[in-house]
Amino acid sequence: MTAAITVYLKELRESLRDRRVLLNALLIGPLLGPILFTMILRLSLATELEKADKPVPVVVIGAERAPNLIEALKQQGLVPEPPVKDIERAVQAQSVNLALRISEGYATDWEAGRPAQVEIIYDSSRRGNGTQVDRLREMLRSYERRTSVMRLVVRGLSPQVGTPLVIADRDQATPQARGALLFAMLPYFLILTTFIGGMWLAIDSTAGERERQSLEPLLANPVPRGQILLGKLGAGVTFSFISLTLGLIAFSIAAHFLPVQRLEMSLRVGPRDIATILPMMIPLVLLIVVTQMLVSAFAKSYREAQTWLGLLQLVPVIPSILLAVAPFSPPPWMYAVPLLGQQLAITQVLRGEPIVQTTLFLCTVATLAAFAAVFFVAQRVYESERLAVNA
Amino acid sequence: MIEVEQLHKSFGTKVAVDDVSFTARDGEITGLLGPNGAGKTTTLRMLYTLLRPERGRIIVDGVDAAAQALQVRARLGVLPDARGLYKRLSARENIDYYGRLQGVPPATARSRIDALTQALGMQDIIERRVEGFSQGERVKVAIARAMVHDPRNVVLDEPSNGLDVMATRSLREFLRNLRSEGRCVLYSTHIMQEVAALCDRIVIIAAGRVVANGTPEALREQAHEQSLEEAFVKIIGSAAVGALA
């Protein structure tokens, strides 16, 4: 065991002097997820929120035919803009986003109590246009409702006659669950952080050591190769785990800067959540790093190891996509699948749901079993002649 | 003392080492001489148990390498063909790492490193990080690293590769000292002059086989040549012809 500790300490010391390892494990890895995530979220939230409050600029054609309508729309946030020639073409050319045309016969139809036509002209294939169109339509509808109520009252009828249905929204999602829907990506980012944290050390301590010609003399020492593997694995796991911890802290800080309150969501990754997630992730960190070491032990060069580990990073995307497209209530066996189980459990913690001890146990045991299997294979590879000699 | 008996090793269909036997004695420098690709490195790799021989035995100080690989590695100081150092560690840290792996007590390791620093003339570089060291400086560190546990047997694979004249001279000096301390030194090279300048006993390998084994004088007599170089050419040549026939 002393040899494993010697190897472990040396790998740590060397890595702490390697700017690339530090940069990846302690900065890029932990920050990449939160920063990307915050940016994506802020961008999408900001556009949604701003649109809900911002005035809606609309090119109005024939405003003089319906002064009352335009006045009512203005009060709801419409900003009329001067008419444009050949409005259909202007919208197609995307020089105008949204236009409202009051028909020629509007005034006569209105006076006669016939339905008067207004046209909304827009391009539905343009991204981000939908909200504005909806808002204009909603403004028109509310004007329409008001007018119809007044007409019924004038004719001595109850306004309720014109309202056969009352629709009320009752969203049953808890504020936390609504946030977690947005945070469905978070488990993936956390697992990615774990990958990045261990990756450079895994490459450096096997494929890198072989490429720099220091593996052969190392193996000439009277130390069982399993101990060398253990020491290197320990160093990789340490970095990966630090990376994950920093990533979680970064996320909990990032959550403060997200405008989630305005969407009536609660999104807190508090110290307690971190304390729940971290121990849960230990078996997965072990599995990920030992797999990285196994892959880079097979690789003939540093670059080849980099390529393979890059591909390996994409593996956790699979359960993420699965969970995103099929947001079903997961059957218990899914917790026994490494990666998938942890992603499910993290999502649960973020939703503020209690974690069932048996599923957590299942998840831990299954991942540890997978780790033991990969470690066994890695040890066999370490014992083989081709580890040091590319014959 | 290193005893090698009828070693055999092949990679796929290529036979790298074919029935190699020799003995390297204590207090002597034994040269393993042969052209590139003759099987020298493969033989040495089997010695320090990096590779497993298909047939044959290796005994170091009476310990069987197949049965007690760790014991054998502890008795050897090895400078392999690959001699990469950890460039982010200082020379001392590099050597100390191997001391720990060899199980040398820290205090002993410290005094050993100081003694090796003196012997190899590394006073200027011992505390510096290895990154940017010259070839000669790197070989010195690699040798010190191999000697940190004070091994009775020293195995060096082409140690003078890439060294300039001065560095080669001081390397020879160092190896002679090892011999006078009574150690067993096994030295592989493809350069005839190296062997002539240094070795008490020469084992010539060609195409994976031992073609001659003896003192320089014995080899000259065997080939009926005055110079060792001529003898070497004649022996290797006849081996090549023999392989062809």
Task: Give a description of the structure.
The complex is a heterodimer of chains A (391) and B (245). Chain A has 391 residues and is mostly helical. Chain A has 2 domains: 2-45 and 175-387, no CATH class; 55-162, D-Maltodextrin-Binding Protein, domain 2 (3-Layer(aba) Sandwich), CATH 3.40.190. In chain A, 65% of the residues lie in helices and 5% in strands. Chain A is built from 15 helices and 4 strands. Chain A has a 4-stranded mixed β-sheet. In chain A, helix 3 (67-75) links the parallel strand 1 (56-61) and strand 2 (78-81). Chain B is of the alpha/beta class and 245 residues long. Chain B has a single domain (2-82, 152-244), classed as Rossmann fold, CATH 3.40.50.300. In chain B, a hairpin with a 2-residue loop joins strand 1 (2-11) and strand 2. Chain B is globular, with a radius of gyration of 18 Å. The two termini of chain B are 36 Å apart. The mean pLDDT of chain B is 91. The A-B interface holds A 2-3, 6-7, 10, 13-14, 17-18, 209, 212-224, 385, 388-389, 391 and B 11, 45, 48, 50-52, 70-71, 73-74, 76, 78-89, 93, 97-98, 100-103, 142, 145-146.
Topology:
The complex is a heterodimer of chains A (391) and B (245).
Chain A: H1 2-16, H2 19-53, E1 56-61, H3 67-75, E2 78-81, H4 87-92, E3 98-102, H5 106-112, E4 118-122, H6 130-154, H7 175-182, H8 186-211, H9 215-219, H10 225-254, H11 271-298, H12 302-312, H13 317-325, H14 340-351, H15 357-383
Parallel strand pairs in A: 1-2, 1-3
Antiparallel strand pairs in A: 3-4
Chain B: E1 2-11, E2 14-24, E3 28-33, H1 40-47, E4 55-60, E5 63-64, H2 69-75, E6 76-79, H3 91-101, H4 106-120, H5 135-147, E7 153-157, H6 165-180, E8 184-189, H7 192-198, E9 201-206, E10 209-214, H8 216-223, H9 228-244
Parallel strand pairs in B: 3-8, 3-9, 6-7, 7-8
Antiparallel strand pairs in B: 1-2, 1-4, 4-5, 9-10
Helix pairs in contact in B: 3-4, 3-5, 8-9
